[in-house]
Specification:
Blueprint (H helix, E strand, L loop, with lengths): L2 E11 L2 E10 L2 E10 L22 E3 L6 E2 L5 H6 L3 E2 L4 E7 L10 E7 L14 H7 L6 E5 L4 H5 L11 H16 L5 E11 L1 H9 L11 E5 L12 H14 L12 H11 L4 H4 L20 H7 L4 E7 L16 H14 L5 H12 L2 H4 L5 H28 L4 E6 L4 H4 L15 H6 L13 H20 L26 E4 L4 E3 L6 H13 L1 H17 L3 H7 L34 H4 L16 H6 L14 H7 L9 H18 L12
Parallel strand pairs: 2-4, 5-6, 8-9, 8-10, 10-11, 11-12, 12-13, 13-14
Antiparallel strand pairs: 1-2, 2-3, 3-7, 7-9, 14-15
Helix pairs in contact: 10-11, 11-17, 13-17
Amino acid sequence: MRLKKKRPLEVVTQYGTVEGFRVKVDETEADVFLGVPYAKPPLGELRFRRPQPPDRWPGVLKCVKYKERSIQKSHFIERLLMNRCSEDCLYLNIFTPKIEDDKILQKYPVFFYIHGGGFMMDTPARYDVAKLCRQFVSRDVILVTIQYRLGFLGFFSTGDSACPGNMGMFDQVLALDWVRNNIEAFGGDPKAMTVGGQSAGAVSADLLSISPYTRGKFQRKMCLGGSSFCHWAVVKREMIVEYCRKKAEQLGWPKRPGDQLTLNDNDAMMDWLRTLPAACVFEEGRLPLGPVYDGDFLPKNVRYLRDRGPSMRSLVGVGQYEALAFAPLGRLKCDEEDIRRMIRTLARNSKDFDEKEITQMITQIYGDGERLATTRDGIARQYIQMASDIISNHACWRFINYYQKRNVETYAYSFEHTSHRVYGLFGLLLPFHGASHGSEIAYFLDFNLFHSPLGRDKNDLKMAELTADYFVSFIRTGDPNNHGKPALPDWPVVGAGEVAADKIFAMALQPKVRFEAWGSRMRQLDLIIERVLWVHELNSSSKRTHQAAKDDPDPVARSESRTQRSPSPDSHNSVTQASPSPKSSRNLSTIPRVSFAEDLSSAREGPSSSPDRTRSEDRKSDPTLCPLKINSFNSMPSILLLLLPAEEADSPKNYHTTLRGVRVACRLRGKFHKQSIKFPS
């Protein structure tokens, strides 16, 4: 691939003139603008507040290099290979077909991409300019990538007007509005926009499609490895408020007696937090930081908003073994003890089933450990499949079912191509190889997901081309089959009157359709997910939603007309059902037996997080609980660190121990022991 920079060029936006540069990649000429401001720098008094539109600038603003990343925890590989972090991070990047002498010859469809990273990390600055131009611009699509505030800076919340939260989501809202108002100057069609993302970015895209601030502002969505159906998509307000309050106390804010802080207390705390240096305070963060019910961006529970939101064509999917990327280093051994630990966690959260009953259901769905232990990696595959189902596969299945019932065309995939060259050294730590969380974007965006030193082979390059053919065709036309390559198999749409989730498109070098891809697993798992992961919200969600519907026929529309909004009660995107009965002994033999071994070849897994929704004090009192509550971590060192237990994750000692484990694994496996790669001692 050749990239040749040519003469600079200028485009006039509503805030001023920006200067980009022209590149030639193979036979494609593209115009690139990097680091275009879409908001005022969120500094000083603007910290922890909604973003403000940028001021007009005089003269010409050079936009020729990526800006600094949003503040996040950075590890040694990231510090070596990537640009530095800054609180001044609200910028976007535009990749567009060549603009002919300031004349727009035609309008191109636009893809608005939101990066993943668990709302805590990552940046679009990782993506190579030349490869993005080849993947998108050569196929007549304009690509826009954005940065938004992460971690505490993006999702800190006091639960009241002092800091309602969701600053990172409002960053995305403002960026989307900027693109809609200015993309025509770059040759884009604001009426042909697709919003998409991966993992946390996929959740964001789905939430943007139903929020009163952005619903109806784009035409299609792509949810890769996540969606608003994931149980980890939206955080309960009380969880995030408690977490943020404890963080402030750790930083030196005096602890107040009692559980409740007044609005004046929270205002004073936020004023104090705005005086602290951002880099040393806010680079850390784990779940439960993320989108929260604030009565504004999310004025009602997700299910309520979804039911009243616009219908649009969607592309949704997961990796074949989504949870695989979170299994290395011995922290998740993928053995019977890990399975028992997950069952204990499910039982702890359940008011309806005890540990014995959940064990029986899990055994009926996935098979028993003794039989699986007879195969070399049977237990590992069982654990990965179960974790993946709970984390994301079930959410993907619900997504497909929901929109199929609403007669909305949906294209569903399972990404199944894998390569040891993509994993690199990280692959040495996996119990087996397979497509995992983020595998599809490694090919869709054609970038080095795991910082592998091995490069790509011809099959990887072919897979990147195939993935872009299907995905970009969907962005351009709403149909992934309009790629102009008759040799590629058709990707069927899941439409009205069809059995949902029976048309999963297996994306590999030889793509094919898998019928009944998830077997009966999801229908059985649905009972556990509903009664365990969301059981604490079922009753209150049902009552509040029912009462809200009586009091206000359309609170979403009313929310759109208000300028000042107050937070509304929390509820979740769960299905309303009768309140669960107390735990009791019952016969579960009515659940049909599903053979894990028979169904293993068609397993479909999902994004990174887990059902560990216990209270912080429970986590401390039970050291056997595994902190699986993680989202997507799109860089190898971040994955390694965040697999540590929560109370150990911030320890440099443990991080270096982890890296020594990588080095030992390399020696033991013997595959890359000659590579001259150094790790901290």
